[in-house]
Amino acid sequence: MMKLLSTTILVSVFATGAMAQNDCAAGKTLEDGKLTIATGNPAYFPWVIDDAPESKQGFEAAVAYAVAERMGFGDEQVVWVRSSFDQAIQPGAKDFDFNLQQYSITEEREEVVDFSVPYYSAAMAVLTRQPVVDSGATASVSSLKSLIWGADANTTAVPMLADLIQPEKDPLLYGDNADVVEAMKANQIDAALFDLPTALYLGAVVLDDGVILGQFPAERSQNPDQFGLLMEEGNPLKECVDAALTSMKDDGTLAAIEAEWLSETTGVPVIE
Fold it and tell me: In CATH terms, is domain 2-119+228-261 a member of 3.10.180.10?
């Protein structure tokens, strides 16, 4: 009897919490009774598995559905749309309630869009190729300084290179991360900085001889790269999204999702 009573209380508490979040979101979504979420086109592992966010598989897909649940939306009420990375960070009206595709929260971007509280703090990792390692590159700042670096000019990798490594030569800048990887394949650059999950994917799938040389601990950077859910500037839904994410952090849900999809046990050495 006591066990049944406890279960009933828990269900009641959860239902009450979901209703409170649903009340928060009422009248604030693009479509009444629906939550429209955007991801990349395509969306990649480990953020979304098999480019199918509706499967709830992958770190960001799992986060999206957990946020939706905290806000009182069932799986059937979630609507997925696609957007390019650059399209979504432009000012103006959006065709989504929030978008998650590894958007770093920056002051410049916050001038034209709104971000949620962070849902992930990304460890930065050094992606290189086996010939560079064979030539003597090691997981030390002194070794990294002499490498030829490449970076996407539109990302935070450029200032982070200057802060973490201070390379002897200015990095070569490219239009996007795909161009950075192609430059590495063409031997134009030796290495590049990516968040750890992306570096793991590129090293294992895209580069035939990719190597994750090392990763930087969070304390090595004054401003660790943090990802936020992106929304239209002034979106009243932000308070509801922030409340959902905060509750997920407080009760360990967010940490559990990260442990499942972005395991810290990668075997990548820490750069000293």
Answer: no
